[in-house]
Design goal:
- The protein has 1 helix and 5 strands; from the N terminus they run H-E-E-E-E-E.
- It has 151 residues and is mostly beta strands.
- The protein is flat and about 125 Å long.
- It starts with a helix and ends in a 19-residue tail after the last strand.
- The relative contact order is 0.08.
Length: 151
Amino acid sequence: ISLQFLALLALIAAASAGVLPAAQVYHAAPAAVATYAAPVPVPVPVPAAVVKTVAHPVLAKADEEYDPHPQYKFAYDVQDSLSGDSKSQVEERDGDVVRGEYSLIDADGFKRVVQYTSDPVNGFNAVVNREPLVAKAIVKAVGYAAPAYHH
């Protein structure tokens, strides 16, 4: 196969993959075709009977009352040995102050633990800790004596 043929194939492949911009082709809009139909008789509207309506008050469900000091606590824990999914979260709210912690296993094998707080004075703050799942093995250096040469 000649080098020119390979260069031509590479150029065609790059253009079809969209790497090289190709000139856009525009087509004219199709010509409008006029069609005519026989006239259709239109019925004349007949005055309808007068309908008297009476306005009634609309009954709507009242929104839940505003809680000036909301409080809640929740937690969940997922430990799936089949997929290896492991995550948990605990959170509680007391008024405008929210505290919580969540953890999950990152793709690199570390466990990420995030402790967070939020309040009107300090805003949102989070402390992120990463812990290896496998403890590092301590390798004790072993010294060897250099071999003795005898001549």
